[in-house]
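User: I'm putting together a teaching handout on how multi-component assemblies are represented. Below are the sequence lines for each component of a complex, exactly as they appear in our records. Could you produce the 3D structure of the whole assembly as structure tokens, so the students can see both representations side by side? Please keep the chain order the same as the input.
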Amino acid sequence: MLKSMKTRSRWLAAATRWAIGCCVLAALAVPAPAQSLGGLGGDSEDPLRVSLVADVAQVRAGEPFYLGVQLQLDKGWHTYWHNPKDGGDPPRIDWQLPEGFAIGPLVWPLPKRTVEPGDLVSYGYTNQVILQALVTPPEEITATATLQFHAKVTWQACDEVCVYGTESVTLVVPHGGASLASPAQGKLAAARAAAPRPIPSFLHNVDARWQPATAKRGVVRAGTWTVRFETAKSQYELQRVFPHAITEGAISEPTITSSASGWTATFAIDGLSAKFTPEQLGALFVLCAKNSDKPAAPISFVVTGVTAEKPPTNDTEQPKPVVKPKNASANGEARERKNR
Amino acid sequence: MKKVGFLGLAIALAMIAGLNAQDSRPSSRPKAATSGHVVKLTDITGKKHDTSKMKDQYIVLEWTESGCPAVIPHYRSGSMQKLAAKYMEKGVAWYGVCSTGRQTKEGLQKFVEKYKVKHPILTDFDGRVGKMFKAARTPHMFILKNGEILYQGAIDDREDGGVNYVAKALDELLAGKDVSTPKTRPYG
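Assistant: Of course. Below is the structure of the complete assembly, with chains in the same order as your input.
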């Protein structure tokens, strides 16, 4: 009984046809022959396809389930994480749910770091990605036999050029006395497994501090954010760090220093406005277990904000960090929304 | 090797100076004392522009691409043309810059005619200036004065009735204030 309906708004089809050469430097590095734009000829030639999936085939009142937007990309194309880094637009999802249903923030799987032509760093996804959120049905469902879930998805996909699209997708699911699993359950679970978790217990002395540069005429314009943590370094290696975006200002990729007991990541921050508070700072850390026989899944977690302002006391007992791990669905853009 | 390179550079500079001399600019024009970001480019009509000669003037660089769906709405609505005209009247220099490798003067000329664009569009098809500024998207906006970047990033926050960062920064600068939001992440 899972049915997906696709509609496309008219201007977007038009926008897709127009869409050549948006990321300016992507196009300049290697002047591409005109034929390379061949894939963008018509409406059906979008490099990205959108569908809506749920991990249930039947919804039960009061029983939460996951609803996800699946983005399927053509080979060579990518879309973006919530911080695209040097440019680009992350997918944006506007949910429209039946009466009384609430939806949580988006769960973003781990991004990949790539360098686009023109030495632009980007954080995003190739092949396919599922962006999902937890839906909580009301205690009593008054609707008729089937429920309609809508998502308006605005996306940007790039290879050497970028295209935009907006698509409205709909999923129709029945409701009843029991919650039934759907065939999409496995891939939704896999996508959640590839999202950040709370700070793992094998890390110690997680510490994040903000060092503002001297204020200029009353406004702090720059500074450094330093995140440190300790663990058994024989067992883990730090694979990658992805800073979260700042709206007004910029955060660099970190400089990583390694000590006997852990790592320190230092981020340079500049171009700040008076609206900045260090609580806006965040970064996704990706660790990998060493010495394991099979390829181990990465362990990722998010550190945000700052710990106590006190300077660290070496070796002796340190104050318990008050770093709040953003939960697995950390996302600056997601909004908790409840439909009337 | 180094000497030859230097000599080549000197000749190139002499040639640029020669070209500029033919530009029939008033000789009394003050010389800018800047070693920062300098833009020397030709616009689509063949006219040369050199920001190092524009001492104490606010200069807007608007990275643009006629085929970009993030750029077109700003021109279709006329808002970019109006914004440029408004600040050019106040003495600000406004340049479109195109660093798209496969773009042509003819392509940009069509764009200029279609949308009645009055401000000059500079051609940087090899991306040299784009790389210097780390221009990443279109539109990607910069405000310069004496070689110093005073604002860089998006043109606006894309909200209905939201903030146009470039207009806000120019208003602040023209009022003798600091730019309150000097850096944003460009979209496009």
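A couple of points students might notice: The radius of gyration of chain B is 17 Å. The first helix of chain B runs from residue 2 to 21.
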